[in-house]
Amino acid sequence: MDVQQIIFQFVGGIGIFLFGLKYMGDGLQRTAGDNLRSILNTFTSTPLRAVLAGAAVTALIQSSTGTTVLTVGLVSAGFMTLTQAIGVIMGANVGTTITAFIIGLNISDYALPIIGIGALFLFFFKSQFISSIGQVIFGFGALFYGLDLMGNGLEPLQHLQIFSDLMVWLSDNPFLGIVTGSIMTFVLQSSSATIGILQQLFSQGAMTIEAALPILFGTNIGTTFTSVLAAVGASLAAKRTSAAHVIFNVLGTIIVMLVLSPFTSVVNMMASAFNLNPELQIAFAHGVFNLLSVGVLIWFTPQLARLVSRVIPGEEDTIEMYEPNLDYSLIQRSPAIALDQTKHEIIQLGKFVLEEYNSMFDYYLNQNKKVMITYLK
C-alpha cells in the first residue's frame, strides 16, 4: 500500500471536487442572473414560500453555506425579516441535498469528456450565456473527476484493521459521529465534500450505514460555523439570523437522533425497494433527514424567531443619515443583490437630502430657529 499515493489522490481529489462544486455554482449563479434576487425578494412572504426560495437559491448556487451567509447579509441590510430568514435557512438545508443526489448519479467514467465539452463552450463561444453554461458543464465534470480520484485514494482504507475498528467505534457512539461530521465540514468548508467522502466510503464497503448516518447529521451542524463567522461584527438582526441557523440545525439533528433506529430501518427499506446504489442511499438519507427536520420545525418558525430574540436580546441601533447600510460581502456573493442594496441607499440618501433642503428652506423663509436647531442636532 503506497501511503503517499493514497494521500495525494485523496487530497487532490478533494481539491478538484471543491473547485468543481464552486465553479459549477458560480456558473449557475451567473446563468440565473437577477432571478436570484427575484426569488429572495418575491417568494419569502410566508414560511413555506421562504423554504422553497431557500431551496431554489441553494440549488442555483450549489452551496447552503453561501445561501445562509447571503441571508445574513440581507437581514443585516434590512431587506429581509428574521422570520423570513429562518424559512430561507430551512430551505437551504433541503436544497443542498441536490448535490448529494448529483454525486449519486455515479458517472465518473464520463468525467473527462464532460470537462472537455465544458472547455469547448468556455473557449470557443463569445456569448456570455453560453460561456456560463460551459462553466457549469466544466465544473460538473471536475466534480466527478475529483470524486473518482478521492474514491481511488480511499479504497485501500477498507483493508486496514485500524480503520475498520474506528468505523465500529463510531457505530457504537453516534454522538462522536456527529462531532466528526461537524469538524470535517468546518475544516473542508463544505458539507457536500463531507457527504461525498461518506458516499465513497459507504460504496466501497469501508463504512456501515450505522456509522455513516451520525456523521451525515453532523454535517448540518458544521455548516453553521461559517454563518456564525459571517455574523461577527454584523448587525443585531444578522447575529439573530446566524443563531437561528445554529438552533434549527441542532434541533433538527436532535429530532432525528431520537428516532435513529427506525430512521435507519426506513433508509435501508427504501434502498432495497428502489434498488438504490450506495451513493444514492446516503443521498436519500440526507434528503429525508432535512425534510423531516423542516417538516417538524416549520410550524414553529414564529416561536423560533422569538426564542432567538430572547437568546440575543437588544434593540437595533438607528442608522445615522451619513452612515450607508451596505454589506460589501454581497459584491462577491451576489452582485445583483449588492446593486439592489446600493439603489436602496441612493434612494435613502435622496430622501435625506430632500429633508435637509426643506428644513433649510423653511428656516430661510420663516427664520424658524427650532428647525435649524433640530437640523444641527
UniProtKB/TrEMBL annotation:
GO terms for biological process: sodium-dependent phosphate transport. It is found in: Cell membrane. GO terms for molecular function: sodium:phosphate symporter activity. InterPro entries: Na/Pi_transpt, NaPi_cotrn-rel/YqeW-like. Its main location: membrane. GO terms for cellular component: plasma membrane. It is a multi-pass membrane protein. The chain crosses the membrane at residues 6-25, 46-65, 110-130, 136-154, 175-199, 211-234, 246-274, 280-300. The keyword Transport does not apply. It comes from the Bacteria. Coiled coil: none annotated. Keywords: Cell membrane, Membrane, Transmembrane, Transmembrane helix. This is Sodium-dependent phosphate transporter. It comes from Tetragenococcus muriaticus 3MR10-3.
